Amino acid sequence: MSTHEPEVRTLKVPGARIHHEVRGSGPVLLMIPGGPQDAGVLAEIARLLADRYTTVTYDPRGNSRSTLDGEPVEQEVDVHADDAARLIAELGGGPVDVFGTSGGGQVGLALTARYPDLVRVLVAHEPACVPMLDDPAAAEARDRHVYDTYLREGVDAAMVEFLGLNGLDVGEGAEGDALSGGDGPPPGEEELATFERVSGNFDYFLRHGLLPISLYRPDVEALAGGAPRVVVGLGAESEGELIHDIGLALAGRLGSAPVGFPGDHLGYDSHPDGFSETLHRVLREA
What we know:
- The chain contains twelve helices and eight strands.
- It has helices spanning 43-49, 77-90, 103-114, 137-153, 155-165, 173-180, 189-199, 202-214, 220-223, 242-254, 267-270, 272-285, and strands spanning 7-13, 16-24, 28-32, 54-58, 96-101, 119-125, 229-235, 259-261.
- Helix 1 (43-49) crosses helix 12 and helix 2 packs across helix 3 (103-114).
- It is globular, with a radius of gyration of 17 Å.
């Protein structure tokens, strides 16, 4: 494990305070987690890349340590993108490299479309933007079913269903090991702390984030011009899953070839060394 420890900072934005962690030196690489996740899930690849980049991870507004000023409201991808833009400005301005995974990929797409001068390259790893499918009706119905399950049966049942849509189960990744006592090595103190924080975000995500994030339609026309460059990353082990099909559809609409990354939807967690090297290669070649 890399030993780069973060400098922890807080940025006041309209309606929230954004917890973010800065490591290393070099060109800025802003890293955006997905859904209910926070900076902790990307900490290891941020450490691994901190000898080549100033890596910046953060908790999206309303998640974990990024507290809201008022009561939770329906999440808006464009508001998350505005937060990312303010972080970039706080770090000295753009253009910077951006990595977003899952719902963080949608935030990266919105950031790039709304603030193209702030982004040099966006790597969107398995963004869950369902409207990119030629016929999104079935996938949209599945997301709405997860939401209905949450309303009827609660958080646990809905999260099991949600993970299944991404080809995952509660035994995969650090969060899954903490839930199920899986066959991998026992999670360490940092992983357990991340799991505790992230699991505390599930209710907020299911109630206020699941549908607006998954149903977000990127501005493909603004993104397809090639500047800034947008790269779609797909997990090698995600092939055959809905999330893989969504990524292929997005890449097709952007007119670009997707790039393979190690692992599945959580490849940054299960294959951090290979994942970080792939990300570095993509950024270097862009």
